[in-house]
Every structure is written in C-alpha cells, then in structure tokens.
Amino acid sequence: MNQKVLSLIGAVIALGVCSSNAQDAKVDFETQILPIMKERCFDCHQKERTDENGKVKKPKGKFRMDSPQLMLKGGEEGNDVVPGDAAKSSVYVSTTLPDDDDLAMPPKGDRLTKEQQELIKKWINEGANFGAWKGAAD
Ligand code: HEC
Asked: 96 CB under 6 A from ligand 1?
C-alpha cells in the first residue's frame, strides 16, 4: 500500500469518528435545520407575499414554516411537526416520499439528501426544539 492510499484510509476513519460524534450531539435548529428549510421549503411555505413579477404567493397547503408557532400549528392536513415523533410528522415524512407522490416535498428540484432527511428526523425525535429562533412576527 502506498502513502496516498494509507492517508486516504486515515481520512475515511477520521470522518467516521467525527460523524459518530456528531450523532451524539443534539441537532441545533438554527445552524442545521433552518438553512435547509430556508433554501428548500420557505419559498412556498411562508407568509403571503408578492413576488418580483407581481404575483401573489400564498403559503402552499395553508402551511407556513416561517416561525415555530406556525410550524407547530401546521397546515391543511395538520400533524406537520409532532415533537418527538418524526414518523408522524409530515415535515419529515414528506421529504422521504418517492418523487411521484403528490405530497413529496419539496415538489420541485432535487430531493433533500439522505443526510438532510436524517437531520430533520433526528431534530423532531429529539423534541423539535427551535432554540432561540423566533422567525416571522406575524
Ligand atoms: C414549490 C413549492 C413547494 C416547496 C418548495 C415546498 N412545498 Fe410543501 N407543499 C407545497 C404544496 C403545493 C403543498 C400542498 C400539497 C397538497 O395539499 O396536495 C404542500 C404541502 C406541504 C405539507 C402539508 C401541509 C398540510 O398540513 O397540509 C408539508 C408538511 C410540506 N408541504 C412540507 C414541506 C417541506 C418540509 C418542504 C421543504 C423540504 C416543502 N414543503 C417545500 C409546495 C411546496
């Protein structure tokens, strides 16, 4: 085995150690979950607004995700975030559905990565703690 291969193996082992440490730590909403939601969900799940083309955009499924209260309140179907139970929470389940399912979220663009899905799952199972995040005031 040459030096390159050895250092590669070293790096893989180090990565494994780091990620197992990361699994012990609790998920932090503002640094780990909010960025995913801002990038992939908020466009369709925030306060009604007028976009740059003058088109009124209402929150889809009557579901707003731009504050803790609104996320917990949920939308049309409800059970969007059930703290402690990701399997019942559509915010998690919808991200895992197959592409052709009507409720697969986000409905446009790439699916969330497996890592992102797992983070959301872990965050909800840990109690869906929003930390200091307040989000939209109205
Ligand atoms: C391109 C717009 C769009 C994006 C982006 C989007 N959604 Fe949706 N979402 C919808 C639409 C449309 C519905 C209503 C679907 C229906 O009722 O058939 C919906 C409904 C939902 C519902 C059900 C709400 C209820 O109580 O009825 C959940 C949960 C949800 N979305 C989660 C997410 C999550 C999590 C993300 C980001 C990973 C996301 N959505 C991104 C368009 C979007």
From this structure: no
Could you tell me how many residues make up the chain? 138
| Mean per-residue pLDDT of the chain | 91
Q: For residue 121, what pLDDT is reported?
A: 98
Q: Whose CA is nearest to atom 20 of ligand 1?
A: 61
d(CA 12, CA 14): 5
**Each residue's pLDDT tens digit, 47-102:** 999 989 999 999 999 999 999 999 999 999 999 999 999 999 999 999 999 999 99
Distance CA 122, CA 98 (A): 20
Ligand 1 centroid–CA 24 distance in Å is 30
Tokens for 55?
């088109």
Q: Which residues pair with 56 in a beta bridge?
A: 50
Q: Would the CB of 101 count as within 6 Å of ligand 1?
A: no
Q: Does the Cβ of 84 fall within 6 Å of ligand 1?
A: no
